[in-house]
């Protein structure tokens, strides 16, 4: 009997082991369509599918995939992919696989799943089902919906700068009332699906049965409103109730209409605020219903009595219409909406929405010399406030946000746009809670006038503030990178830059969150790698590139801001180092994310821009524009002081030509490959004739920017390269390791030093508090990156244009980059730069293939490096030794490992190639 039991146990154990071994050790996760997890409002008829793979074993490579798409979850689950079955496709590509199925229908949810095979022919289980929902693919999908407004359009104005006093209208323009709309309707059947497609210009808040739909802020995103307007898609299936329902919409101005009052950086008015909406309901019985915006909607003035993206927001709570968002409200005294004569192209908003990303508490509250209360949030950030207040009806208070304080502790808006304020009129019942809806600012402090904090003496019976909270608003792009090291200063610098980046991620990449809020496009490419290490910017950059395309002039010029709401003057309207973002950012986006569609779509317009630059060139030299903006010279920062604008402009022109040659090759345009290759040679020859002094081996005025941009772009003859490096190093060292390069040049300083093995010098330049730079800003109280290296108070104190060090923190100290021939981090390079007093560092980046990790430590006995490489990708690792015998992986000598390929020795480092998986390398001293 005992032997029989042992036999049964053996058979049972064998069965479990056999079953486990039959289960694949890999699976599919993070399914994406058009770069989003479950997108709503997809407009392309050929969406692209991406996924990531989890694999327990090393060296996973996908050999094939199969995608199935159905128009119901039941069909997908039951093996009936009635929309598309790709079949088994032999491919290692797990990103941007195009849909090739039946024609997609508007406003329809599709269900899809994927499975993959490894290079051994083993098959994964199916992924979990995911969805994507189409938008309104045809103009007639909007049905009978109309643009509606409360007031007829008056004078339309585009692009008057606030300092151009003579051009300003004599009587105020843009002074429209802020409307709120409502519409009751009935639902009498069981609902299968219901979607709302809505656009409100400038911005809207949508309510259904008394609750706000979604958690977005400042929908819809900014566009060139005379060319196209975004609409936003919401799934409201679970929000509708049987029988009676009511829709409510409130509108603000945004960049669509700017009231000519308080502060405005520029004056734009496309007309009165407007709304367009269609609610599409599909019932279980197959029938459908549409609710559309038309003149049957009711409209009245909202309690928002002033709305300006530049000047602030006022709210009169005594004008609230209690219950207006509820069924049965008596709106007989409301007016019927006007149908507006407005016919822009409607485009689905596919960038991530802005959201309230963080609540920031007050760290200190005190009374200033004027008797007003100062609330200090301890952090300079983009956003709004949330007010909790009680008091008597019709009492008023004013809140003045500011990033700095004057010497008398009053709000200092000198450099951030003055006046900007929030004014609130109380309705007078218990605790009132309010936050602005259609504006925001960059601030750390709020000066409160006409109210006191709870618990303080209140002899005048002013309103009492029971709570004031800061609400940080930002684009809701997912975080993609993390960084930490043993040096506290570099962690603080990372945080300093990050706050500036987050504060300027709106529906465009703004320069600052207060004074301008404009998309100065040079930041788009110079800060692109830094941004993309930290956040997933794939969808955002599609919009940025399109904004530049829509702003391009008939002559081919790409303006310095996009969308171009105003034509600046005096070099600000057209600068080559700015406009070239159209070409450079498009190329960088392709390298990072692997999507070539923007290159294909906009290539003709890129050629047009190159032709425009050629028309401005004299013997291939372009010498106009702002140059190395805000470099450190003898004068107040502004236009380049240490480097000729012809050098940076022409070098950028050359860089464009080299990129255009690569794009032409990618797009199989052989004539253009030859054309731009020849142009690059000609520009380089002219550049060296104009700017290189062969007797001194120097370029231009021998500035840090001049030498670095020459090195980065490969403009120097190889014979003189070492001399140029020496010139750069000498200039930095003689200045006690301080920087001089500005907005254009500093990224190239870092890149030139890093690629030439001089990261130790980068460390020395940026580990200091006593010279202008990141440490200087921190020492002077900055909590977000400032506009000037010197942290001057007369310019913005929340700018991200100088945050280039973020790229080096990840790519240098962390060591995470991709190899030169790689696309979308298919082949990663891990090469940590061990510099200064840094004894450990960790960095991660969520690539299109999965999470890359690099973590290293300096130990007494040697150097340790932990590496994680995502499945279906590979990596080249550089380790600090010439002797492979000194290296182990989890204790196993490298030459004994079948998982590792030895590639040789490069710059005194051992170079190896590995597949996906986790590795622990140790290099003995």
TrEMBL record:
<feature type="domain" description="Alpha-L-rhamnosidase concanavalin-like">
    <location>
        <begin position="368"/>
        <end position="453"/>
    </location>
</feature>
<dbReference type="InterPro" id="IPR035396">
    <property type="entry name" value="Bac_rhamnosid6H"/>
</dbReference>
<dbReference type="InterPro" id="IPR013737">
    <property type="entry name" value="Bac_rhamnosid_N"/>
</dbReference>
<feature type="signal peptide">
    <location>
        <begin position="1"/>
        <end position="22"/>
    </location>
</feature>
<dbReference type="InterPro" id="IPR012341">
    <property type="entry name" value="6hp_glycosidase-like_sf"/>
</dbReference>
<dbReference type="InterPro" id="IPR035398">
    <property type="entry name" value="Bac_rhamnosid_C"/>
</dbReference>
<protein>
    <recommendedName>
        <fullName>alpha-L-rhamnosidase</fullName>
        <ecNumber>3.2.1.40</ecNumber>
    </recommendedName>
</protein>
<dbReference type="GO" id="GO:0030596">
    <property type="term" value="F:alpha-L-rhamnosidase activity"/>
</dbReference>
<dbReference type="InterPro" id="IPR016007">
    <property type="entry name" value="Alpha_rhamnosid"/>
</dbReference>
<dbReference type="Pfam" id="PF17389">
    <property type="entry name" value="Bac_rhamnosid6H"/>
</dbReference>
<dbReference type="Pfam" id="PF05592">
    <property type="entry name" value="Bac_rhamnosid"/>
</dbReference>
<feature type="domain" description="Alpha-L-rhamnosidase C-terminal">
    <location>
        <begin position="815"/>
        <end position="885"/>
    </location>
</feature>
<feature type="domain" description="Alpha-L-rhamnosidase six-hairpin glycosidase">
    <location>
        <begin position="479"/>
        <end position="811"/>
    </location>
</feature>
<keyword id="KW-0378">Hydrolase</keyword>
<feature type="domain" description="Bacterial alpha-L-rhamnosidase N-terminal">
    <location>
        <begin position="189"/>
        <end position="357"/>
    </location>
</feature>
<dbReference type="GO" id="GO:0005975">
    <property type="term" value="P:carbohydrate metabolic process"/>
</dbReference>
<dbReference type="InterPro" id="IPR008902">
    <property type="entry name" value="Rhamnosid_concanavalin"/>
</dbReference>
<dbReference type="InterPro" id="IPR008979">
    <property type="entry name" value="Galactose-bd-like_sf"/>
</dbReference>
<dbReference type="Pfam" id="PF17390">
    <property type="entry name" value="Bac_rhamnosid_C"/>
</dbReference>
<keyword id="KW-0732">Signal</keyword>
<dbReference type="Pfam" id="PF08531">
    <property type="entry name" value="Bac_rhamnosid_N"/>
</dbReference>
<dbReference type="InterPro" id="IPR013783">
    <property type="entry name" value="Ig-like_fold"/>
</dbReference>
<dbReference type="InterPro" id="IPR008928">
    <property type="entry name" value="6-hairpin_glycosidase_sf"/>
</dbReference>
<dbReference type="Pfam" id="PF25788">
    <property type="entry name" value="Ig_Rha78A_N"/>
</dbReference>
């Amino acid at each position: 009997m005992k032997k029989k039991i042992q036999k049964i146990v053996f058979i049972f154990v064998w069965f479990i082991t056999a079953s486990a071994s039959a289960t694949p050790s890999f699976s599919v996760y993070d399914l994406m369509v058009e770069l989003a997890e479950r997108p709503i409002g997809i407009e392309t008829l050929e969406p692209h599918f991406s996924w990531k793979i989890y694999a327990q074993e090393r060296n996973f490579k996908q050999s094939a995939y199969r995608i199935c798409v159905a128009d119901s979850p039941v069909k997908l689950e039951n093996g009936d992919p009635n929309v598309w079955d790709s079949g088994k496709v032999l491919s290692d590509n797990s990103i941007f696989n195009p849909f090739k199925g039946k024609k997609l229908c508007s406003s329809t949810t599709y269900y899809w799943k994927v499975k993959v095979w490894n290079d051994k022919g083993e098959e994964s289980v199916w992924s979990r089902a995911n969805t994507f929902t189409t938008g309104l693919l045809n103009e007639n999908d909007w049905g009978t919906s109309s643009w509606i407004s409360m007031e007829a359009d008056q004078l339309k104005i585009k692009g008057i700068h606030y300092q151009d006093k003579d051009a300003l209208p004599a009587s105020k323009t843009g002074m429209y009332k802020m409307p709120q709309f409502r519409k009751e309707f009935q639902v009498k059947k069981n609902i299968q699906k219901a979607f709302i497609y809505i656009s409100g210009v400038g911005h809207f808040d949508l309510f259904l049965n008394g609750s706000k739909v979604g958690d977005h802020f400042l929908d819809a995103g900014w566009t060139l409103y005379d060319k196209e307007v975004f609409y936003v898609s919401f799934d409201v299936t679970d929000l509708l109730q049987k029988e009676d329902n009511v829709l409510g919409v409130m509108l603000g101005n945004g960049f669509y209409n700017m009231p000519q009052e308080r502060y405005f950086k520029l004056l734009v008015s496309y007309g009165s605020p407007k709304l367009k909406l269609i609610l599409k309901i599909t019932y279980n019985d197959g029938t459908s219903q549409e609710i559309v915006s038309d003149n049957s909607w009711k409209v009245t003035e909202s309690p928002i009595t002033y709305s300006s993206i530049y000047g602030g927001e006022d709210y009169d709570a005594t004008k609230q219409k209690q219950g207006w968002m509820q069924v049965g409200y008596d709106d007989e005294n409301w007016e019927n909406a006007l149908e507006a004569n407005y016919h822009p192209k409607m485009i689905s908003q596919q960038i991530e929405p802005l959201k309230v990303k963080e609540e920031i508490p007050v760290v200190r509250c005190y009374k200033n010399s004027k008797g007003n209360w100062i609330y200090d949030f301890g952090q300079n950030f983009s956003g709004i406030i949330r007010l909790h207040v009680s008091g008597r009806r019709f009492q008023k208070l004013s809140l003045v946000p500011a990033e700095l304080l004057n010497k008398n502790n009053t709000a200092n808006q000198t450099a951030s746009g003055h006046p900007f304020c929030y004014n609130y009129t109380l309705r007078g019942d218990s605790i009132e809670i309010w936050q602005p809806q259609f504006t925001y600012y960059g601030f750390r402090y709020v000066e409160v006038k006409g109210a006191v904090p709870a618990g303080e003496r209140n002899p005048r019976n002013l309103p009492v503030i029971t709570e004031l909270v800061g609400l940080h608003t930002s684009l809701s792009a997912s975080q993609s990178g993390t960084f930490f090291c043993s040096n506290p200063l570099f962690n603080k610098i990372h945080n300093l830059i990050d706050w500036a980046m987050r504060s300027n991620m709106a529906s465009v990449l703004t320069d600052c969150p207060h004074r301008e809020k404009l998309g100065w496009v040079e930041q788009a490419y110079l800060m692109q790698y830094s941004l993309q290490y930290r956040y997933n910017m794939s969808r955002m950059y599609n919009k940025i590139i399109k904004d530049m395309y829509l702003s391009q002039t008939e002559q081919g010029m790409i303006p310095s801001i996009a969308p171009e709401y105003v034509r600046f003057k005096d070099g600000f309207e057209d600068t080559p180092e700015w406009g070239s973002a159209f070409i450079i950012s498009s190329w960088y986006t392709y390298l990072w994310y692997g999507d070539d569609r923007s290159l294909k779509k906009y290539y003709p317009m890129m050629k047009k821009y190159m032709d425009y630059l050629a028309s401005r060139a004299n013997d291939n030299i372009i010498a106009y524009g702002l140059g190395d903006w805000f470099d450190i010279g003898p004068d107040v920062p502004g236009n380049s002081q240490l480097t000729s604008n012809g050098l940076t402009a022409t070098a950028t022109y050359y860089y464009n030509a080299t990129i255009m040659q690569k794009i032409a090759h990618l797009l199989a345009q052989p004539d253009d490959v030859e054309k731009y290759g020849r142009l690059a040679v000609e520009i380089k020859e002219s550049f060296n004739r104009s700017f290189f002094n062969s007797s001194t081996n120097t370029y231009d005025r021998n500035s840090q920017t001049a030498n670095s941009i020459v090195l980065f772009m490969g403009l120097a003859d190889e014979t003189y390269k070492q001399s140029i490096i020496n010139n750069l190093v000498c200039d930095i060292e003689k200045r006690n390791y301080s920087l001089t390069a500005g907005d254009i040049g500093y990224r190239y300083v870092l890149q030139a030093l890093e690629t030439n093995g001089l990261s130790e010098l980068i460390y020395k330049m940026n580990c200091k508090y006593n010279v202008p730079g990141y440490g200087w800003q921190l020492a002077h109280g900055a909590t977000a990156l400032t506009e000037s290296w010197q942290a001057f108070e007369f310019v913005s104190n929340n700018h991200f244009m100088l945050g280039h060090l973020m790229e080096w923190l990840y790519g240098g100290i962390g060591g995470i980059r991709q190899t030169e021939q790689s696309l979308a981090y298919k082949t990663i390079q891990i090469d940590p730069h061990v510099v200064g007093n840094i004894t450990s560092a960790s960095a991660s980046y969520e690539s299109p293939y999965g999470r890359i990790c690099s973590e290293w430590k300096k130990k007494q006995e040697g150097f340790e490096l932990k590496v994680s490489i995502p499945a279906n990708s590979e990596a080249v690792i550089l380790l600090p030794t010439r002797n492979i015998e000194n290296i182990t992986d989890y204790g196993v000598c490298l030459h004994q490992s079948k998982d590792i390929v030895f590639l040789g020795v490069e710059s005194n480092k051992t170079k190896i190639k590995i597949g996906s998986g986790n590795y622990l390398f140790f290099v003995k001293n």
